[in-house]
Amino acid sequence: MENSERETDNVRLPDRHPTLRLLAMPADANASGDIFGGWIMSQVDIAGAIEAMRRTKGRVVTVAVTEFTFKKPVFVGDLVSCYGEVVKTGRTSITVDVAVFAERDRHPSNCVKVTEAKVVYVAVDEDRNPRPVPPPE
Ligand SMILES: CC(C)(COP(=O)(O)OP(=O)(O)OC[C@H]1O[C@@H](n2cnc3c(N)ncnc32)[C@H](O)[C@@H]1OP(=O)(O)O)[C@@H](O)C(=O)NCCC(=O)NCCS
User: Fold this and answer.
1) Closest by alpha carbon to 60, among 100, 95, 87?
2) Which of 7, 39, 54, 110 has the most CB atoms lying inside 10 A of its own CB?
3) Pocket test for ligand 1, best of 45, 46, 122, 125 (most atoms within 8 A of CB)
4) 63 C-alpha to ligand 1 centroid (Å)
């Protein structure tokens, strides 16, 4: 894992394209005005699914979230970037690590690692039955 993926404060974004990038909006906030954890979980699941669908070349379902840590809060106006990486492939399942970073105050150097998660997906066919993960290209 790169340095920027281990530490939390004043980190640099990983040197690759994010799987997903979006702006945290007021509608995504909780009653205290900070970003709702469920919104972040949803983005993590979407980012992980994008990487799982790419790798399995088709439909996937989320079967388990085996790790999930909110390391730092996310604030309204943060630019949120999710980086997914396939870390394990089983017969029909695929495990994706997702790291989430927030750039604050519209400033790329004010970047914080906010969340780390591990999500397991299962490749499924049209009838939602598990299908084998195809070999890598
Ligand atoms: C995912 C699903 C298709 C698996 O069906 P199943 O009949 O249990 O299939 P299996 O027991 O053969 O498991 C399939 C794979 O998932 C893995 N798996 C199952 N439960 C797991 C768990 N809790 N954690 C990690 N992996 C798990 C199995 O190890 C297996 O992996 P492998 O083929 O790489 O060895 C089924 O449980 C399902 O449809 N769940 C609902 C999914 C869903 O709707 N997700 C969105 C929720 S909103």
Assistant:
1) 95
2) 39
3) 122
4) 5
pTM for the predicted model, two decimal places: 0.94
Index of the ligand 1 atom closest to the CA of residue 129: 3
61-115 pLDDT, tens digit each:
999 999 999 999 999 999 999 999 999 999 999 999 999 999 998 787 899 999 9
- Ligand 1 nearest-atom number relative to CA 130: 3
**pLDDT at residue 109, as a whole number:** 84
Domains of the chain, CATH where assigned: 3-123 (3.10.129.10)
User: Is the Cα torsion angle 116, 7, 114, 46 positive or negative in sign?
Assistant: negative
- pLDDT one-digit tens code per residue, 20-52: 999 999 999 999 999 999 999 999 999 999 999
Closest Cα to atom 17, ligand 1: which residue?
93
The amino acid that residue 70 corresponds to is F
Say yes or no to pLDDT of 4 above 80: no
Q: Distances in Å between the alpha carbon of 25 and those of 76, 100, 104, 115?
A: 5, 16, 13, 18
